[in-house]
Amino acid sequence: MSAPVAPGNPRLGPGGWLRWGWRTLTSMRTALWLLALLALAAIPGSLLPQRPTDPAAVLRYTRDHPGLARWLHRVEFFDVFNASWFRAVYLLLMISLVGCLVPRGRMWWRQWRTPAPTPTQAAVEEAVWHQAKQGAQLHQARRWLRRRRYRVRLVQPWPPSSQPGTGEGGLLIADKGRLRELGNLAFHLALLGILVAVALGRHYGYRAEVVVAEGGGFTNSVVQFDSYHPGAGVAPGDLPEFTVSLHQLQVSFLPPSSGQDAGKPEGFAALTTVRDAPGQPQREVRIGPNRPLEVEGTKVYLMGQGYAPRISVRDASGRVVFSGPVILLPREGDRSMTSTGVLKVPDGLADQLGLELTFLPTGLRLPTAQGGQQMVSVFPQASRPVLVITAAWRGDLGLDSGRAQSVYRLDTQAMRPLPGAEGELTPGTTMQLPQGLGSITFDGVSRFAGFTLASDPGRGWALAAALLALLGLVVSLFVYPATVWVWVRPDGSLMVSGQAGRGHEHVHAQTGRLVVWLGESSQIRRSSP
Amino acid sequence: MTVLAAVLAATAAEAMHRYGQLSNSLVKASMAVYTCAMLAHALYAARQVRTPARPAAVEQLQPVGVAAGPGSSSVPDLEPQQPSQPQSRSEQRVGHVALNLTILAALVLTAAVAARVMAVHRPPWGNMYEFSLTSALLATLIYVVAAIRWRVVGLGVVVVPLALLGVGLAATVLYVPAGGLQPILDSSWLVIHVATVVGSFAAYTVGAALCLLYLARASSRPSWAGRLGWLPSAQRLDTMSYRLHAFTFPVYTFSVIAGAIWAEAAWGRYWGWDPKETWAFIVWVLYAIYLHARLTAGWSGRAAAGLALLAYSGFIVNYFVINLLVSGLHSYAR
Ligand code: HEM
After folding, report:
1. What residue of A is the nearest CA neighbor of B66?
2. What's the CA gap between A346 and A321, in Å, rounded?
3. Pick from A481, A460, A474, A462: nearest CA to A186
4. Rounded to an integer, what is the distance from CA A409 to the centroid of its chain?
5. At A166, phi and psi to the nearest 5?
């Protein structure tokens, strides 16, 4: 950080400005403003689509508002929580926190070890005193205070100026609540700890996604993922080599009799076998919502599901050129789980073949408003499955073109339509493809599962730091510093006075209890000015 | 066997339906009682506002807490009591009626929530409808305890209409018939998370009401100051408000932590800056600033009260705007 130049102020050199800057940065007021700025800065992140969580929404927004979006991109509003200015604010806050914690920690240590300070005579005389009953003993008061975890110390003679031997009085100084400051320090330190744990987890962790149909599986390795986001400190060889095979995905939906909730998913479970490492025995694992699989710090979450109809394609001579499940994605917001996707057959036919498919779990032919009929899905459970070929193309699928390819979409640049291929299939039925290409069979219905894999080595530390913060918070809010003075007058009578910080005036009530405990209701006495 | 199972299933569904209907009727009944309680509080306030302020009682020095006796209550008295305007007999009676009507409303609402639990077989905070009912009930209960302990029936002038508003919104805009949960919401961490959010929301609501009363009481406008003499002193209101906020902040902190634990179990990340999480963070930061300002930075009480109200409005934004208008992973609202 560079110190501001001060042309008009000869008395403050660069060192002075530095010191001034440091003091300002580490002051409570600055910290509060930075904190407020952090809250303010988070607001656009909650209202605008964010690239890390929803990149598609960012693209949509950019398309819909090109002029505004250019600006928003420039100020990093589509990735607020990684934006340079957001980082700047929380880094400054961290520095400010450290700068204030170090001296406070040192001060706390000194105060922890030194006994409660002896008040001035004036302070004692100005205090509000309660008179205890005649005959109350100092050792009783001492015991009462000790039991309530006060530190006690007797100053004798009191007043210090009194002549020794003239029936000297004494002042018992009792204090407690030093834990408050410790709790407070722990709280602020733990906040730093959370940030460090988050950063560590990001650096040494990774996230990945993989989609598997029933009967299939995957190995935890980079080549098998559909998407992969490693931290900077993760090499591909670092991933634990476990394998997961998906036998069955169980999904149940609320029945049509459940009114407006009908068709909502009621339960999911992926029945899998897992091999924790090559050569190890397999184990059965049931993965469900809120119940991830965990292997060596990597957790596997069931995050999505849908249908994967099993399809076979044969050439004109009846030889199988494609066979297996085809993953079709449920349409967004469609509760009846109408799903769409494509089948690509690159090899074995006279030409490469691409089919556009729609799957209707419970397909019914319903009349449309125009008087025609339409096949629609009325319920997400596959009770009357229908596979619809909506369009077909032949030619070059473009798999070798070097263009980016999606398994869910056809690149029809080098293809021509194949009319007459459209049609509806039910399980077990076969349809001939036009132009003598061959045939297609709908063998049956499988499901697919979308898994998210996440490894975050910082998460345990983050939780520990968060719990420490909570503990420190409770201590710093509910432990309060309190001081009680018990004045033994030269005649042997006792007076009690409580000292409390702002907001903790109820120490006075405790003092009152001590007086009552010492005997008799008390009267108040202000020492005359 | 299958016939028996079908019969059992049918009776279970019927029982669910019947308890759901009962709960709905009780909600309506509680709204009627809440309305009466609100009117009684309004009468309580109106009578005293109209009464010209009497001269303040002669200041008496009193050793505080002594009167309570040793080991009486675990919560010590709130600082030396500043004399506020004394009440006449009939004014006190109106206050009692208002408080008792509020207790009755809370009882009816408790029955409504209990019937809902019988209908859905899970804690009553599975959607915004149930969340609103339960938090309105809790806010009412906190007010009743405060009114008895701290003698602030005036607080009900703000809290009871707010609770009625919460129940009313639930019964109309947010209504959801009794039913199950989405699978992702079926988690014990979620139960803990939402339970503490409901609790903090209720307590912060009463805290916000205290801040409003404080701002009115501490107003420098003589026309206000003269009319509000029947409320507790500004200093007492300030202390009560701080106590309640300080108590609630760790609860809310815990609820955010529990939410993060649940998010980790459900989605594989404990914090993802989802809109809901972002606003939970904003609200948490604002309340932290309030506590700092109140204790260490030496802000005036009025600025601190404004901060607490700002933080509370952040909570409202998170609850209504984010739940209903901004989509995120938290599918709680639907
Ligand atoms: C550089 C930054 C910070 C400084 C200098 C600072 C300073 C302080 C100080 C001096 C106290 C003691 C209050 C007392 O014991 O009377 C305190 C308390 C507290 N701080 Fe901070 N703080 C900072 C940052 C934060 C942050 C970032 C948060 C949370 C977002 C936070 C939350 C709290 C809380 C909750 C308390 C307890 C309430 C209280 O006892 O006053 N602080 N802080």
Report:
1. A512
2. 9
3. A474
4. 33
5. -95, 50
Tokens encoding A190: 């733990």
The residue among B271, B279, B193 whose CA lies nearest residue A465 is B271
Average pLDDT over residues B289-301: 79
Q: What is the pLDDT of residues A482-513, one digit of tens each?
A: 888 888 888 888 888 887 765 566 666 667 67
Q: Is residue B85 scored above 80 in pLDDT?
A: no
Stretch among A148-152, A211-215, A374-378, A520-524 having the lowest mean pLDDT: A520-524
A517/B70 touch (CB, cutoff 8 Å), yes or no: yes
Q: Determine whether the interchain pair A264/B182 forms a contact, defined as Cβ–Cβ distance below 8 Å.
A: yes
Q: What is the pLDDT of residues B31-72, one digit of tens each?
A: 999 999 999 999 998 888 765 544 443 333 333 333 333 333
Q: Is the CB of A191 under 6 A from ligand 1?
A: yes
The type of residue at A30 is T
Give the model's pLDDT for residue A14: 82
Residue A264 Cα to ligand 1 midpoint, Å, equals 46
Structure tokens at A277: 């490492």
What digits encode the pLDDT tens for the residues A72-130? 989 899 999 889 999 999 899 999 999 988 998 998 898 888 888 888 888 888 888 88
Ligand 1: centre distance to CA B288 (Å): 8
| Residues B45-73: b if buried by 16+ CB within 10 A, e if exposed | bebbeeeeeeeeeeeeeebbbbeeeeeee
Q: Tokens 């108590």 map to which residue?
A: B247
DSSP letter at A288 equals B
Ligand 1 pocket member B246 (CB < 6 A) = no
Contact B179 A261 (CB under 8 A): yes
Rounded to whole angstroms, the Cα distance separating B208 from B237 reads 11
Structure confidence at residue A403 (pLDDT):
72
In tens, the pLDDT along A435-465 reads 888 999 999 999 999 999 999 999 999 999 9
Residue partners of A172: CB distance under 8 A and separation at least 6:
A138, A141, A142, A145, A152, A153, A154, A155, A485, A486, A487, A488
Token pair for residue A1?
Answer: 């950080």
> Atom 7 (ligand 1): residue with closest C-alpha?
A28
Interchain CB distance below 8 Å, B250 and A512? no
Distance from C-alpha of B281 to C-alpha of B273, rounded to nearest angstrom? 9
Which of A183, A502, A180, A177 lies closest to B242, judged by CA? A502
Query: To test ligand 1's pocket by mutation, which of A476, A479, A480 has the most ligand atoms within 8 angstroms of CB?
Result: A476
Contact A35 B289 (CB under 8 A): yes
Distance CA A151, CA A142 (A): 9
Residues in chain A: 529
Minimum CA–CA partner of B188 in chain A:
A290
Q: What's the first-to-final CA gap in chain B, in angstroms?
A: 37
A505 to chain B: closest CA residue: B79
3-state DSSP assignment of residue A482? strand
* Nearest C-alpha in A relative to B265: A290
Ligand 1 within 6 A of CB of A28? yes
> Residue whose CA is closest, atom 5 of ligand 1?
A28
The answer to whether residue A155 neighbours chain B at the CB level (below 8 Å) is no
Mean predicted lDDT score pLDDT of chain B: 82
Are A301 and B267 a contacting pair at CB < 8 A? Answer: yes
In angstroms, what CA-CA distances link B110 with A294, A337, B21?
41, 40, 15
